[in-house]
């Protein structure tokens, strides 16, 4: 497999309207809404790279654009050209071996946040401490991001009752109570209080696991016995704008990079306790660009 699935759209004639801003008359406008207003690094570097066309990956020789999904290295752009993101929690992605690498959006996370993201190929799954890790996966028993932390505390509470931990739970509950109105707070005093809170709190969550595969393959990974006892988190209110949306699946089934982004945004707003200011928007740096290019191509072909 030497080509990205989006090949047919990545040619110069598709290069107009490659930013996330959209024409109101565009039939795809609704589908683009979730990506409006993101704080993104300039896409100019991607536009320029796209104009040059595909290049050979210096490591494997594969024909690639922007990055090599096999070697996880940049192609035609440099590290200085792309945003690098620091995440508030480590992310592991378990990839299905049959998932075509060129179609996966997991690689976007690894390239844009290389220090915080690790990709494993199933059946390789690290040996996790189950009370410090959550699995983002929908289904019965899955909890919201808001409830996740309390579930982790409850789980560790049942194993340990030391004083410092009990203190953390109280603090979390108190701040959750304020959560609904935190945007109304005086900005200065709010920021100060939130900073103190984030410094003194110790959260049990160390790592968040995502599964990267088609939703049919995902069943095999999610039912693996090594992933059974995790707290599962569901991102119920988000809708995908993935151009490879799977037939017969609801639009709340997200592309991997969307799931990571929305999880982190919720996590930040709930537990980092400062206003979200677009810190992780650049996780969608490639995704929003490709989304825009492909939707523009579909619209001009009258298929949207
Ligand atoms: Zn390569």
Automatic annotation (TrEMBL):
Ranges for region Disordered: 157-200
InterPro entries: DTW (IPR005636), tRNA_Mod/Golgi_Maint (IPR051521)
Domain DTW: 64-299
Compartments reported by the entry: Nucleus
UniProt-listed GO biological process terms: tRNA modification
Reaction catalysed by this enzyme: a uridine in tRNA + S-adenosyl-L-methionine = a 3-[(3S)-3-amino-3-carboxypropyl]uridine in tRNA + S-methyl-5'-thioadenosine + H(+)
GO CC aspect terms: nucleus
Gene Ontology molecular function, alphabetical: tRNA-uridine aminocarboxypropyltransferase activity
Protein name (Swiss-Prot/TrEMBL): tRNA-uridine aminocarboxypropyltransferase 1
Entry coiled-coil feature ranges: none
PANTHER family: NATURAL KILLER CELL-SPECIFIC ANTIGEN KLIP1, TRNA-URIDINE AMINOCARBOXYPROPYLTRANSFERASE 1
Domain of life per record: Eukaryota
Enzyme class (EC, first level): transferase
Taxonomic source organism: Labrus bergylta (ballan wrasse)
Primary localization class, coarse: nucleus
